[in-house]
């Protein structure tokens, strides 16, 4: 029986065991940590063998909070941005206002920003997922030497040699459908992803993407991606992420300035 130890006001970030986690989970876990800190939500982390088996969608990481099991970064962002407020100040920050609620015009602008932020999150998170899945599952050497052993870790035979192949087939079919299967296509899409985020970082003047007054889920996604990419210099199969992020100095500067505000030590 799976028991969650978090209190009502505390979230639990559910991850697979360290010997079995894959780059996609580590990347989105970093994004979710930033998101939870951004909204001042206390959380603990728990590692489970085959965490995806308790996930509503079969994906990990998973957040258990307020009686709900939530997965998929875009959906989790949408939940918290609607329930906690898109433009709520960071925890501990001064609101600096008179405490009055937003007028009709401000509410309308907030709804427009909410829709814009969510559309960017959906597009970028989908591209990030495809990119990481391509790097992790498609190259034969990476799959055979790293992905397959890690994915099968903790499984008993015959599952240990049946399920990885089935998972790879599903990934290949999905990537082929969205145009990420071939190496050239994936390379072009990866360059587009990082250059687009770099352009958004260059154009921001508030310290937040889309020039929002407060950090949004899009900022958590971008900063989580950069943080993960910087740690991939010696990650077999994912070294390209390190090279791509170094080519975007504006994105690096933006991430360096914002992360300490999201996760104060």
Automatic annotation (TrEMBL):
PANTHER family in the cross-refs: FAILED AXON CONNECTIONS-RELATED (PTHR12289:SF41), METAXIN RELATED (PTHR12289)
Alphabetical list of Pfam families matching this protein: Tom37
Ranges for region Disordered: 87-107
Bilayer-crossing regions: none
Gene Ontology biological process: mitochondrion organization; protein transport
Annotated source species: Macrostomum lignano
InterPro entries: Mito_Protein_Transport_Metaxin, Sam37/metaxin_N
Domain of life where this protein originates: Eukaryota
Location of this chain's protein in the cell: Mitochondrion outer membrane
Keywords, alphabetical: Membrane, Mitochondrion, Mitochondrion outer membrane, Protein transport, Transport
Stretches assigned to the Mitochondrial outer membrane transport complex Sam37/metaxin N-terminal domain: 49-168
Residue ranges the record marks as coiled coil: none
Name the UniProt record assigns to this protein: Mitochondrial outer membrane transport complex Sam37/metaxin N-terminal domain-containing protein
Any one Gene Ontology cellular component term annotated for this protein: SAM complex
